[in-house]
């Protein structure tokens, strides 16, 4: 999730085997305690609304770059089918994915969040398609997607689960499909992943992400750091990765 670096309360640190600390039940309990709103999704930042605006604008420009790098992918107009993975209440779908895809499915394990999505105007208008109330580790795609967008949630998966998830996504992409991850990065001085007891998640290093993507048979076609966050807030860096199959 988007996180501020808290210097007064050191984060639980991390050995290389830090993902052993992940406890799905504790994560779901934490997320159930968060209000089902867009700001709730950014709760660890105190729900700063400006954060979301900067994030969504950066995502739009990142996707445009990625589309230009995929041969035969249209660079103008909407993609046909996307999916928002770890969607929460649909902050990313509402502020970005619905503007670049005709329909957007959603994958999210917390029922009170998917309930909000079910009741949204985007669902009523048909822009939000199928809503899967399930964690991404248990989600089995039932169709092909032009865009699979996974943001601020893979810290809830162990490394091996993330590799398998990436493989399943790879097989669920259309010919010109793009898989995007947008996540916080570890700032651990020893270069390790960091464990966060608040929501029982792991914040990975850039190197760990790249290892996982390679092991899952994916190439990073473009990657960039999100810019534009005020320096005064000492936020964890956020990096986007656009992936395509090596095959
Ligand atoms: C920081 S919020 C981000 C929500 C949304 N991606 C956004 O950027 O607004 C993290 C989300 O991950 C969800 N989550 C927790 N465990 C998950 C899992 N195993 N698979 C997918 N999502 C999970 C939480 O319920 C929560 O909605």
From TrEMBL:
* Residues involved in S-adenosyl-L-methionine binding: 86, 91, 151
Gene Ontology CC annotation, any one? cytoplasm
Say which domain of life the source belongs to.
Eukaryota
Q: Which GO terms describe its biological process?
A: methylation
User: Which EC numbers does the record give?
Assistant: 2.1.1.244
Q: Which UniProt keywords apply?
A: Methyltransferase, S-adenosyl-L-methionine, Transferase
Which top EC class applies here?
Answer: transferase
Q: Kindly state which reaction or reactions the protein catalyses.
A: N-terminal L-prolyl-L-prolyl-L-lysyl-[protein] + 2 S-adenosyl-L-methionine = N-terminal N,N-dimethyl-L-prolyl-L-prolyl-L-lysyl-[protein] + 2 S-adenosyl-L-homocysteine + 2 H(+); N-terminal L-seryl-L-prolyl-L-lysyl-[protein] + 3 S-adenosyl-L-methionine = N-terminal N,N,N-trimethyl-L-seryl-L-prolyl-L-lysyl-[protein] + 3 S-adenosyl-L-homocysteine + 3 H(+); N-terminal L-alanyl-L-prolyl-L-lysyl-[protein] + 3 S-adenosyl-L-methionine = N-terminal N,N,N-trimethyl-L-alanyl-L-prolyl-L-lysyl-[protein] + 3 S-adenosyl-L-homocysteine + 3 H(+)
- Pfam families in alphabetical order: Methyltransf_PK
What are the recorded GO MF terms, alphabetically? N-terminal protein N-methyltransferase activity
What SUPFAM superfamilies does the annotation carry?
S-adenosyl-L-methionine-dependent methyltransferases
Q: What CDD domains does the entry give?
A: AdoMet_MTases
Q: Does the keyword Metal-binding apply?
A: no
PANTHER family the UniProt entry points to: AD-003 - RELATED, ALPHA N-TERMINAL PROTEIN METHYLTRANSFERASE 1
Query: Which family is this protein grouped under?
Result: Belongs to the methyltransferase superfamily. NTM1 family.
Entry protein name = Alpha N-terminal protein methyltransferase 1
Origin species, per record, is Aspergillus ruber (strain CBS 135680)
